[in-house]
């Protein structure tokens, strides 16, 4: 379980990115962070894994306050936090298997990580994870030979190789087409259900978030302005989070994307006949 208590972040410039943010993410829940650019979504995730030091508040992962741990303990605690990135963050020249095994770097001695000689148990687990994300046959292929959706699946397997207590997911579908985006979100939800993993997903695609997230939190100017189920996220709330004009433009863009995808699917079907 993750619990934030009055988490705040003010930068040296005086700009406040987060204001007294408090919520709990129980085991197995996938929570989506939505809000306009500059709302504090990325800062929130970076505070949780301490890439950014918070100005105040508590970050409780189990019984540990991540906001208070020192450098050496922070390294150990970060092993418990799996990260899935928008731009995949793979080592392109390494194989799929080697990228997945990099999730174990925090657990093995330096000489093993330097020579990439991992314990047999880690290798067996990596194969199981690749099978789970549908990439077992791609294990020996270089990462730069994969499609975007395949790369994101490698990123998911790498995060799971850490055996994390929490998943932080930053814009996992921003670089993917709509169909692949749904596949990736479905995979993340299924894996969190299977492993009872709590997850926070920073996501810009509101309809996709409404379709897949267990719960949504809306941020605006660093403050929580909505915390509830996707079903409770109506037009009035979305207007409050994004501003009425911006939300109308976002909705129109999504509808145009859906229409374009449906047209492409129809054309493919016509060619196949």
From TrEMBL:
GO terms for molecular function: ATP binding. The keyword Cytoplasm does not apply. It is a peripheral membrane protein. Keywords: ATP-binding, Cell membrane, Membrane, Nucleotide-binding, Translocase, Transport. It is found in: Cell inner membrane. Residues 2-246 form the ABC transporter domain. SUPFAM superfamilies: P-loop containing nucleoside triphosphate hydrolases. It comes from the Bacteria. Residues 254-273 are annotated as: Disordered. InterPro entries: AAA+_ATPase (IPR003593), ABC_transporter-like_ATP-bd (IPR003439), ABC_transporter-like_CS (IPR017871), ABC_transpr_PhnC (IPR012693), MetN_ABC_transporter-like (IPR050086), P-loop_NTPase (IPR027417). PANTHER family: AMINO ACID IMPORT ATP-BINDING PROTEIN, PHOSPHONATES IMPORT ATP-BINDING PROTEIN PHNC. This is Phosphonate ABC transporter ATP-binding protein. It comes from Chromohalobacter beijerinckii. The lineage of its organism: Bacteria, Pseudomonadati, Pseudomonadota, Gammaproteobacteria, Oceanospirillales.
């Amino acid at each position: 379980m993750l619990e934030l208590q009055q988490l705040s972040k003010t930068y040296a410039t005086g700009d406040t990115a987060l204001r007294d943010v408090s919520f709990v993410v129980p085991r197995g829940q996938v929570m989506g962070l939505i809000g306009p650019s500059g709302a504090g979504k990325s800062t929130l995730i970076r505070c949780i894994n301490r890439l950014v030091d918070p100005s105040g508040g508590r970050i409780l992962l189990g019984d540990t306050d991540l906001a208070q741990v020192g450098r050496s303990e922070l390294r150990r605690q970060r092993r418990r936090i799996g990260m899935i990135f928008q731009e995949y963050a793979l080592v392109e020249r390494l194989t799929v298997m080697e990228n997945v095994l990099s999730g174990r770097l925090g657990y093995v001695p330096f000489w093993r990580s330097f020579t990439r000689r991992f314990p047999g148990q880690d290798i067996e687990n990596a194969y199981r994870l690749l099978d789970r994300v549908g990439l077992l046959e791609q294990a020996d292929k270089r990462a730069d030979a994969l499609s975007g959706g395949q790369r994101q699946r490698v990123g998911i397997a790498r995060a799971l190789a850490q055996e994390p207590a929490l998943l932080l997911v930053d814009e996992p579908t921003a670089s993917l087409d709509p169909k692949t985006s749904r596949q990736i979100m479905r995979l993340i939800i299924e894996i969190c259900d299977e492993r009872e993993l709590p997850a926070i997903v920073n996501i810009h695609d509101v309809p996709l978030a409404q379709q897949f997230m267990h719960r949504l939190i809306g941020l605006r100017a660093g403050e929580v302005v909505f915390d509830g189920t996707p079903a409770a996220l109506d037009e009035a709330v979305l207007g409050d989070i994004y501003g009425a004009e911006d939300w109308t433009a976002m909705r129109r863009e999504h509808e145009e994307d859906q229409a374009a995808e449906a047209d492409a699917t129809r054309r493919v079907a016509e060619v196949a006949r």
